[in-house]
Amino acid sequence: MTQEEIRKILHVGVLLSSERDLDRLLERILSSVMELAHCDAGTLYLLDGDALRFRIMRNDTLKVRSGGDGTLPDLPPVPLSPENVCARALLEGRTIHVADVTHSPDYDFSGSARYDAMTGYRTRSMLAVPMRSRTGEALGALQLINAVDRDGNVGPFSREMALVLESVASQAAITLQNVRYIQEIQELFRSFVRAMSSAIDERSPYNGSHTRHMAAYGERFLDYLNAQAGRSEPPFPPRRREELIMSVWLHDIGKLVIPLEVMDKPARLLPEQHSAFLHRMERIRLLGEIDALSGRDVDPDRLARETREAEALAEAADTAGFVTDEMLAALERLAGRTYRDRDGQEQPWLTPEEHAMLSIRKGTLSDRERETIQSHAVMTDKLLSQIRFSPELSHVREWAAGHHEFLDGSGYPKHLSGEDVPIEVRIITILDIFDALTAGDRPYKPGMSPERALSILDAMANKEGKLDPDLVRLFAESRCWETGT
Fold first, then answer.
1. Residue 233 carries which DSSP code?
2. Euclidean distance between the first and the last CA atom of the chain, given in angstroms as a whole number
3. Contact at 8 Å (CB) between 245 and 219?
4. How far is the CA of 355 from the CAs of 42, 349, 351, 364, in angstroms?
């Protein structure tokens, strides 16, 4: 064996041990062993159930390259039976030499014969090398065709080269198994993240599809941004894209610790506050009737009418999209009214807390409740700090926790501004706001049309300076919220 061949063998080992993408790894395995064996064609099979499936095919004479990009060669699988050379090599765990397929009655070469008849190729020598893990698990097989000498003549594979290829195939099998383990672990983590996200959304009868929508919009939007780059380097290659989408899935994990009565609050008054107010109005009516029967100067009919009006006012303010000045004035007058209870103590028709809640101009949350809701971003950061992310996902915590930051510094929790807000956070923020505006399952407002939501995003970007104008424009152009985009 020459020094150059030894160098190539060592280089193959380095290449295989450094590759983590399964398709590229399979392609490298086949290309490397074909180069070492000086052969014209080869196929890499992976075991799938009771058959070997084609994953990579290469034929230099015919200039055929198939597989390696995630697509599979369009060929039927090879049954795992001893009549097939590659299958027997895997079944028996040994390398099989065939000097000339036309003079080897022990194996079924009908497939090769049909291929040769269709293409005009001439299959002669063959070498089948099994791929097994260090524990003996069958993974697949390498089938090499037509060894070529220095003069370009086709002949049998040498015994010495077979030993080299067995060593390389063994190392390749270990690397392949490791890559599969990594993929399985990654998919396990992704599944866990999706399960956690579903738990967050399903915890509430409202907002049940929020994160799933954001992830779907986000994937299509990133694909759109990559497509806009044309032949240039895409802004979101696979690893960065994966990291951002993972951040989307985890952005609301902090809501796991937010009380449901705050997170799902459909009206300004809590249910128990609403019941207490209605019970008080009923008590006032009953006390009025008692006073009238006792001969006191009370008009029970008028009192009944006024309490009904108070109930209608409270109901209107409780669920209003916006509390008007007229409603605020009426609430102020109602808060000033009092009655005497059975003990003669003066009590308000509307308690100070009820008055404060019903007087919230927009939305259903008090300042304290809003702070509680906003704390979910801090809790997202705190919860994600407990996860040891891989280097490929090292920004997930930062991007997920920052999804309420604005470019003008008015966001939360860190009040970042300008260039301190990463582009990934800007994208997640746009996705979050858009879905919140268009969602039809929110308890405090009806969903609006995409065009109306886009106009609000545009105003937030170009008038208020909160969002990135270029990203908002590209988001609108992408139509990524539409099915099939």
1. P
2. 56
3. yes
4. 80, 10, 6, 13
Q: Are 91 and 113 in contact (CB under 8 A)?
A: no
Residue 33 near residue 142, CB atoms below 8 Å: yes
pLDDT at 485: 45
| pLDDT on residue 398 | 97
Look up the pTM and report it.
0.66
pLDDT band (50, 70, 90) for residue 466: very high
Rounded to 5°, the CA angle 203-209-215 comes to 120
Question: Which amino acid, 173?
Answer: A
Query: Structural domains in the chain?
Result: 3-180 (3.30.450.40), 203-256+368-478 (1.10.3210.10), 271-363 (no CATH)
Give me the long-range contacts of 317-323 (CB less than 8 A, separation at least 24).
Answer: 317/268, 317/358, 317/359, 318/267, 318/268, 318/269, 318/274, 318/358, 319/266, 319/267, 319/268, 321/362, 321/445, 322/361, 322/362, 323/358, 323/359, 323/360, 323/361, 323/362
For residue 131, list its beta bridge partners: 140
Nearest CA among 29, 356, 390, 413 for reference residue 186 = 390
Helix or strand or coil: residue 109?
coil
Q: Which residues lie below 8 Å from residue 302, measured CB to CB, with a gap of 6+?
A: none
Q: What is the pLDDT of residues 185-229, one digit of tens each?
A: 778 888 888 887 777 777 765 655 888 899 999 999 999 999 998
Which CA distances in Å does 351 have to 272, 309, 318, 368?
13, 17, 14, 18
Return the closest-CA partner of residue 165 out of 124, 125, 131, 123.
Answer: 131
Matching residue, tokens 């879905």: 435
Q: What is the pLDDT of residue 9?
A: 60
Using alpha carbons, select from 412, 438, 435, 437 the residue that is nearest to residue 425: 412
- Tens of pLDDT, residue by residue over 44-85, are 999 998 999 998 899 999 998 888 766 777 788 999 988 889
State how beta strands 126-132 and 96-98 pair: antiparallel
The Cα–Cα gap between 110 and 124 comes to 13
Look up tokens 């065009």; give the residue: 451
